Amino acid sequence: MTLAELRRWEIQNNWSAKRIEKTNNFLDDFAITYADEKLCEIWAEIKSDAHKKGRPIETADAWVASVALMFDVPLVTHNRRHFENIEHLKIISEA
Q1: pTM above 0.90, yes or no
Q2: Fewer CB atoms near the end CB (10 Å): N or C, the chain?
């Protein structure tokens, strides 16, 4: 999901080839995780729990949180409030 958002920003903001290349080089240090059955189950639980609590979460945010939970790693964000209601999610944020 994060990669999809980056690709959208490239197109939407008409990034230069140099900026795209710099981003791609940066991303080489990270693993890209594709949806599998377990990740889909975690995503469904996050979306359902948020709905039950009356605090809906955006689809993209739920995907990002799902990956963090699946791999038991903290989620780094500038939008802490988007993720605060997800149980067991560790958040790193300056905000």
Answers
A1: no
A2: C
